[in-house]
Each structure stands twice: as structure tokens, then as C-alpha cells.
Amino acid sequence: xxxxxxxxxxxxxxxxxxxxxxxxxxxxxxxxxxxxxxxxxxxxxxxxxxxxxxxxxxxxxxxxxxxxxxxxxxxxxxxxxxxxxxxxxxxxxxxxxxxxxxxxxxxxxxxxxxxxxxxxxxxxxxxxxxxxxxxxxxxxxxxxxxxxxxxxx
Length: 153
What we know:
Largest sheet: none
Order of helices and strands: HHHHHHHHH
Mean pLDDT: 95
Radius of gyration: 16 Å
Number of helices: 9
Shape: globular
Helix content: 55-70%
Low-confidence stretches: none
């Protein structure tokens, strides 16, 4: 697979604004571990290899365990996630799949038990931001660094 174009070179001012949003969400005060779990989960749903490569690496560097990263697609069936993380992951899935879910009241009600209104806005902007990055990376076929190349048989 090959990248379709260099979006940073083609639209530097828009990408600068996107990086500003990324910086603002990263510095919002939400827990780093929570933010990385959200980014990984949205990227899994969206099938974004570039973002999965980046955010699983970032999560590990921030102290996240391999087990929690590997079990993330099945977070509902695992006891490894806190109630706050579960609420955030459910909100992540609801917003990432919004055309299907319409952001259900039950998911929002659970979110309100674990997050302040300000944190809900921060989390929602984080989810929106990673979804935009996923769409940019998937749409333009961004390539993650390759540690190895699979050879054709």
C-alpha cells in the first residue's frame, strides 16, 4: 500500500489547525491512559493501522499493559477496565458509530456517573479528534513505520 498524498504539504494551514486541536485535547487534563484507550478503540473501529501503530506505542510508553491493549476490542467482557474507562469506551463506540447508534441515552447517562460536564465535553472532543485523524489517515493511506516487510510467497 502506498500513501495517496502528503496532506501536511498540500494544506499546511489546515493541518496546523488540526494539530492545534490535537494539542488542546492532549492537554485537556483527562488521564493519559484513558485518552490512549479511547484513541486505540476508535482507531480499531475505523481500521486505522497508522493510528493503531502510533497509539498502542504511546500507550505502552505511558505504562499501559499489553493485556489491556490486546483485550480492548472485548472490553465489555474483561474486568481489566474501570467503570470510568468503560463509560468512556462506550461513549467512544457510540460516537464513532453515530450513524448506527445515535448516541444512546443509556450510554450518556452512564457517562454522567463518571465524568463532569466539562470532562464530557473534553472526552467528546477527543473522540471527534481521533475520528478526524482516522479519516485523514485511512482516506489518504498514511503508512505507519515498518519494522519488517512481509515478502510475497
